[in-house]
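job 3f2a | input accepted
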Amino acid sequence: MALLSAKLGAPASAVTATADGLTTGLIPSPLTSGPLVTVTSDDATKKISLPAGTIGDVINLHIGATGCELIAVTAADKANNVTIGATNQLALAANTRYRCEYVSANNWLVTGAIVTSRGAPKLSLTAALTAVTHSAPGTPDYAIADPTQTTPYGFTTSDEMLTVLSVIANLQARVLELEGGQTNALTPDAL
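job 3f2a | predicted structure (191 res):
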């Protein structure tokens, strides 16, 4: 319990990327780093270093207007199965929030999301296709039978086909409603 309260009570931290990821580029341990580590960099090739980890450690990073590279102080450490402690680095994009979780010995799982100025994830939505139009089924038939076995294959009844089209159209409408809600909540903020 002391460990949990130490993590929750720790103040937010800030690090500044350096050429080698040392000094101001060292990310504090989760015990002292607080809930969010703010990262500043003046060059995308500068580095920040993950500390030696303990399984279960979580470090949340917010990268500012210039990206940087993530390395680790422990030579054998990997991020997403790529060694970052000795030879490689993980590029961190500007204006992005990352979650670094130490999941097993020498293994960090790093996930990220572009964020708005309010701190909410900025979602990337799949482009919409033209909406499906259909005739309403005489009697909705949600128990779709096997397709007919003659060429061309098809639905057993017209109502089955029209029911499937009405379900697809309903799903399209609901997704558009969800997209509208997300768009209203997350825009027009640009970092």
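job 3f2a | The helical segments are 2-9, 30-33, 158-186.
job 3f2a | closed
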